[in-house]
Design goal:
The mean pLDDT is 79. The longest helix is centred in the first third of the chain and has 36 residues, at 108-143. This protein is an alpha+beta fold. Strands 1, 4, 5 and 6 form a four-stranded mixed sheet that branches. The protein has a two-stranded antiparallel sheet with strand order 2-3. The chain has helices spanning 3-11, 15-34, 44-54, 58-65, 81-96, 98-104, 108-143, 154-181, 186-211, 217-238, 275-293, 298-306, 312-333, 336-345, 357-382, 384-392, 397-402, 406-428, and strands at residues 240-247, 250-253, 256-259, 262-268, 349-350, 443-444. It starts with a helix and ends with a strand. Helices cover 69% and strands 6% of the residues. It contains 18 helices and six strands.
Length: 445
């Protein structure tokens, strides 16, 4: 029996891990059930039909992150994106506001307070976005042959704001429960299952294009080959590491000798994981949603033109934001000064460098270089849908996003993180992991 299958079976032999996995599956099932509950006063079938006729544009990409809930205006139409946007805002404020920075350094209590502020910010964003979606639905209903909005007047706006805001608050709670009582990465897993839920529709549309001779069989097979190559590249870079050799001094305690051996300090090429992709996507979708909901005359047309998902300006800004958030999140999670102090405390020395400041500068320089490689790779993969649009003529954002781009990066990244989480539980209880060598290791660059 292969090692991954044996590791999967062992996962259900550990009572605590089994309970966490089952709990996670139940929470995700509840989320998917809520994604099909219709919003009162909205004809989700008519809205979905208009999406299919118009293609949806950038909103179709947003719909992918909600698992189809936005396309049908269900109670989970906003998805988890408002919470992610609020998290971005709070992390930026922590870096620039002294009071929040001081609060972040107070340990668990400080982080608890910041999490509470993030929840309040999420509710505020939900109210604003819910009102914008309500206006957008009214506008779509006016131009649709089949009325999308069934209820008129203030009750409709009130119902949309209440339903969408409550839905996102419930999703936020589900994510926190998965992180605390499940296998971890609750918010990421919710986005993961939302994208997976749209995968059958993407494959069906691709099959239809081939069947209708809109693309050749060779082109369809080329897309599948591209999918395999991109997945392999994402795994290679995500697990990639730069190992810094560290020498520890030899110590004599009693009759035994300790230390005196060379070790390695692993620096991940993609330290930020899929966070930059999620952050950049959530920010880039906000202007398009606002522009589609609020009448602004010529400005509305400008926003619609600039924020086309297959447009050059959109992709340039999108790639730049991915690179920025790679460095930003790496700076939050990687502290070279603290790491150098830890090495100095335990007598570790990077070969050829003096302990302390020189070591910290070297670690910072190396991390900046490898982060640039990881950031450029993430941005390049995220732009694959635009390449497919130009060279392959695939203009459907749902199809192109699944064969490269943001959704594929999130799927692979979250899957690897979840496997690591489960593997830690296995190794702690003397079971082998998903690889024959035990723990999943990063590649050496």
């Amino acid at each position: 029996m292969s090692q991954p299958i044996e590791a999967f079976r062992n996962s259900f032999k550990i009572p605590e891990l089994k309970q966490r996995i089952i709990f996670t599956l139940i929470m995700l099932a509840i989320y998917r059930f809520g994604a099909v509950i219709p919003t009162p006063g909205v004809d989700g079938t008519a809205l979905s039909e208009m999406f299919r006729q118009t293609g949806g544009g950038l909103l179709a990409v947003y719909d992918m992150f909600t698992g189809g809930a936005f396309e049908q205006a269900t109670v989970f139409a906003l998805g988890i994106m408002p919470y992610i946007s609020a998290s971005i805002i709070m992390q930026l404020l922590v870096a620039v506001v002294p009071a929040l920075e001081k609060l972040a350094k107070e340990g668990a209590e400080g982080q608890k307070k910041i999490t509470e502020y993030t929840r309040y910010a999420t509710i505020g964003l939900c109210i604003v976005q819910s009102f914008g979606i309500a206006v957008w639905l009214r506008n779509m209903s006016a131009s649709s042959p089949t009325p999308i909005v069934v209820t008129e007047g203030l009750p409709f706006y009130f119902m949309c704001i209440l339903t969408f805001t409550t839905g996102t608050a419930f999703i936020m709670w589900l994510g926190e429960q998965i992180s605390e009582h499940g296998v971890g990465n609750g918010i990421s897993l919710i986005i993961f299952i939302s994208i997976v839920a749209r995968m059958p529709a993407a494959l069906f549309r691709l099959f239809q294009l081939v069947q209708d001779n809109e693309i050749s069989v060779f082109m369809g097979l080329s897309m599948l080959a591209l999918l395999v190559v991109v997945i392999g590249g994402v795994i290679y870079v995500t697990t990639g590491q730069r190992r810094i050799p560290v020498q520890y001094p030899r110590q004599i305690k009693g009759r035994r000798a300790y230390g005196g051996q060379r070790s390695y300090l692993p620096l991940r090429v993609n330290q930020a994981g899929v966070i930059p992709i999620i952050f950049a996507s959530s920010i880039m979708m906000l202007p398009a949603m606002v522009g589609g909901a609020v009448p602004m005359g010529g400005m509305q047309d400008t926003l619609a033109s600039f924020f086309r998902w297959d447009g050059v300006p959109y992709n340039i800004v999108y790639a730049g934001m991915i690179i920025f958030f790679c460095y930003f999140y790496t700076a939050l999670t990687f502290n070279p000064i603290e790491m150098a102090d830890q090495l100095k405390k335990y007598g570790g020395v990077v070969m050829g460098l003096r302990p302390g400041r020189a070591t910290a500068d070297y670690l910072n320089r190396v991390m900046n270089r490898i982060t640039l490689v990881g950031a450029i790779f993430l941005a390049g993969v995220a732009l694959i849908p635009n390449v497919m649009n130009v060279f392959m003529g695939i203009r459907d954002p749902l199809i192109s996003s699944f064969f490269g781009g943001t959704s594929l990066l999130i799927l692979v990244g979250v899957a690897l993180d979840t496997v690591r989480q489960i593997e830690q539980h296995l190794i702690m209880r003397n079971y082998e992991g998903f690889m024959k060598s035990g723990r999943m290791r990063g590649r050496r660059f």
